[in-house]
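Board notes (copied after class):
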Amino acid sequence: MSIVDDLLALYADKGRAQYGGEPVSQLAHALQSAALAEAEGAGDTLIAAALLHDVGHLVDRHADGAAEAGVDRQHEDIAAGYLARWFAPAVVEPIRRHVAAKRCLVTTEPGYFAALSEESVRSLKVQGGAFTPDEASRFLAMPGAEDALRLRKWDDLAKVANAKTPDLARYRRRLEAGLKPSSS
């Protein structure tokens, strides 16, 4: 079995779990994120990142109850570390930075905070809150910041109960396109 098969199986199995306090499952959130990326014309690697951005929640064996206890398990780092063995940086780095992108957007984009879901506001506090203007400037100067910001916005919108999305199998090719050459 390939890593793509493993990831599709992981989402099919553990993805049915509720996505925190949001009205969607982990799988529905991932599929909505990927569908939004696809609708916006993103490339394969960014669509793969959109699909996989929260895989850290699914592979973290110590995640249960952490959020409710106010503990940030840093799912973005868990996901990036898990995926980096197989996937190109164009997939991994937006995932690694999607939480920092939220913290940046709260500081730099008027109205962004007010549009966050209640669960995202709660997690923002645990994740360190809004960036200072200097932190936001440093983030925006990083290579790949724009992709992380795009991913973050799809993440924020991908919480619609009963939204129609393509099925998981549709994204196999996108995932395969994001693999490192040695992982194919």
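Comment from the instructor: The domain at 3-183 is CATH 1.10.3210.10 (Hypothetical protein af1432). The mean pLDDT is 92.
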